[in-house]
Design a protein that fits this description.
mainly alpha; 72% helix
């Protein structure tokens, strides 16, 4: 993609649907709600006329929309009882031909990761997911979320500290199992 390229919502979807789905899952969206929130994200992008080049990259622009959709969804869900992420359905669909034992191990690692990510509040979790799991720069994250760069760095530092503490509480075996799953998390 060239630096100044405008992307309409259909092109955004073609290029970044997997990115948005991964972001939503890492934000704790249950598998049963994933399609609805994906649709909401790209509908908002469509209403805004797609992506217009600026300080945010397309990925952080979409992550900001997704973050707001998650927050709104959780507010609505509080009245009907929000359930934690059921990522297995999403991962099984993407896993294809993995054997059953490897899939079980992978699912267990994702469950541990979800538990640890669940210890972070939404603002910190969004920054952590974008920086650590999806490889975004803090400058781009700040632009996408519409916050000062120092705020994004502060949230990331706090999230890393809380993440480390949560991993230490897991115990050696679970913490060791989590490390490889971070490296193999889909981007």
């Amino acid at each position: 993609m060239s630096a100044g390229e405008h992307l309409d919502s259909s092109e955004l979807f073609r290029r970044y649907a997997r990115y948005v789905a991964n972001f939503l899952v890492r934000m704790g969206v249950p598998g049963r709600d994933l399609d609805d929130l994906m649709q909401e994200v790209f509908l908002v992008a469509h209403k805004h006329g797609g992506y217009t080049p600026g300080p945010a990259k397309p990925t952080t622009y979409l992550a900001n929309i997704a973050f707001k959709a998650v927050v709104s969804h959780r507010r609505k869900a509080r009245t009907r009882g929000f359930v934690s992420v059921d990522e297995r359905a999403v991962e099984h669909a993407a896993a294809g031909s993995r054997n059953a034992e490897a899939q079980r191990e992978h699912d267990q690692k994702l469950e541990i990761l979800d538990r640890v990510l669940g210890t972070l509040d939404e603002d910190k979790r969004a920054v952590f997911v974008m920086a650590e799991l999806q490889g975004e720069t803090v400058v781009s994250i700040a632009a996408g979320l519409g916050v000062p760069v120092d705020t994004a760095y502060s949230r990331l530092r706090a999230a890393r500290k809380k993440f480390r503490a949560a991993v230490l509480e897991l115990g050696a075996e679970q913490a060791e199992a989590l490390s490889p799953s971070l490296e193999s998390t889909p981007q």
